[in-house]
């Protein structure tokens, strides 16, 4: 097994551990995530709310923990959901993660054995990133 594959599986194991903590009484769809940043791992799980729209996804929870620890560049994130096939990050999470590395490695797992690896620039091509805000284009 290659070193990166081993790292992917290790990160996935942390996401699975976080999935156990998910608070998902409404959808009953538990998600765990683990961000790899600065050589450390930061976990998150989905936290639902009676006002459904106030729910926080696992990926954003993990990203918040990494930022709180001082990291603004993430090498990779692993995501595990209750779907049989690997769970793909939602659109809002893709945009949220692009802030911290638009080429981030994305490792996805589900309840089955399959693991998919991709990168954020594939899942969210031409992301809106802070560089656009620094340009004068479009200003009067
Ligand atoms: N969910 C995540 O945590 N991450 C995703 O990328 C997709 C969806 C959560 C939100 C909600 O608690 C449940 O999965 C069902 O949508």
Please tag this protein with its features:
140 residues; alpha+beta; Cytidine Deaminase, domain 2; 5-stranded mixed sheet; 5 helices; globular; binds tetrahydrodeoxyuridine
Characterization of the model:
The chain is α+β, with helices and mostly antiparallel strands. It has one domain (6-133): Cytidine Deaminase, domain 2 (3-Layer(aba) Sandwich). The chain is 32% helix and 21% strand. A 5-stranded mixed sheet has the order 2-1-3-4-5. It binds tetrahydrodeoxyuridine. Tetrahydrodeoxyuridine is lined by residues 24, 27, 29, 31, 46, 48, 55, 57-59, 89-90, 93. The site of tetrahydrodeoxyuridine has 13 residues, from α2.
List the uncertain runs.
Answer: none
**How many discrete structural domains?**
1
Shape: globular
Biggest sheet details: 5 strands, mixed
Bound molecules: tetrahydrodeoxyuridine
Count all strands and give the number. 5
What is the share of helical residues?
Answer: 25-40%
Mean pLDDT: 96
Radius of gyration: 15 Å
Number of contiguous helices = 5
């Amino acid at each position: 097994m290659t070193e990166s594959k081993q790292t992917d599986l290790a990160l996935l194991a942390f996401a699975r551990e976080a999935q156990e903590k998910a608070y998902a009484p409404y959808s009953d769809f538990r998600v765990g995530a683990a961000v790899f940043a600065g050589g450390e791992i930061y976990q998150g799980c989905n936290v639902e709310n009676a006002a459904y729209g106030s729910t926080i996804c696992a990926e954003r929870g993990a990203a918040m923990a990494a930022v709180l620890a001082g990291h603004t560049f993430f090498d990779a994130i692993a995501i595990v959901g209750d779907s049989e096939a690997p769970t793909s990050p939602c659109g809002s999470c893709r945009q949220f993660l692009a802030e911290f590395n638009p080429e981030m490695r994305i490792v996805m797992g589900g309840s089955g054995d399959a693991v998919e690896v991709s990168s954020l620039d594939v899942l969210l091509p031409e992301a809106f990133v802070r560089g656009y805000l620094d340009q004068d284009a479009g200003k009067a």
